[in-house]
Amino acid sequence: MGQQFSELSDKHIEFIEKQKVFFVGTATNDSRVNISPKGMDSFRVINSNKILWLNVTGSGNETAAHVQSNPRMTIMFMALEGNPLILRLYGQAKVIHQSDELWNEYFPLFNPLPGARQIFELDVDLVQNSCGMAVPFFDYAGDRQQLKDWAVKKGESGLKDYWQQKNTQSIDGLDTNIVEKNIK
After folding, report:
1. Which domains does the chain have, with CATH numbers?
2. Which residue numbers delimit the Pyridoxamine 5'-phosphate oxidase N-terminal domain (predicted)?
3. The pTM is what?
């Protein structure tokens, strides 16, 4: 049976630290809902009500566009091994671009990832767990290297060109501000 909490407990944080994948959900009031899988050691719990995750360059930039228009965000973890559990974090998020003051404070909390483009900060106002008994078991075989290799091959200049070509707007035409905030 599901339970709700106003903050992350030590048990929740321990569960999160063991997970290899999480999902981020965002939407504006009238956009498509975006659900994006994440991994690559890009998640950090700052305290019982604040988390950060480092976003790397991808084919779209929906989350950044959504959060700047409507800051609500849901993050979901699910146990793929061990005891079943689904854990959702709800709250208000903000996008932190490389030119923002907080970037220099938060970026060192992560192992550098090629293609890093934004950090998201989520102020958690609700934590919910549910059983997860319908989630199948999966064995972790390792991280994929293709995205890291692609970003290294592109280089800093190539990534900025890619951002201009592919990451400036959401699929619904919302601005991401990546060029204005990250390209100097």
Report:
1. 3-133+143-176 (2.30.110.10)
2. 9-130
3. 0.95
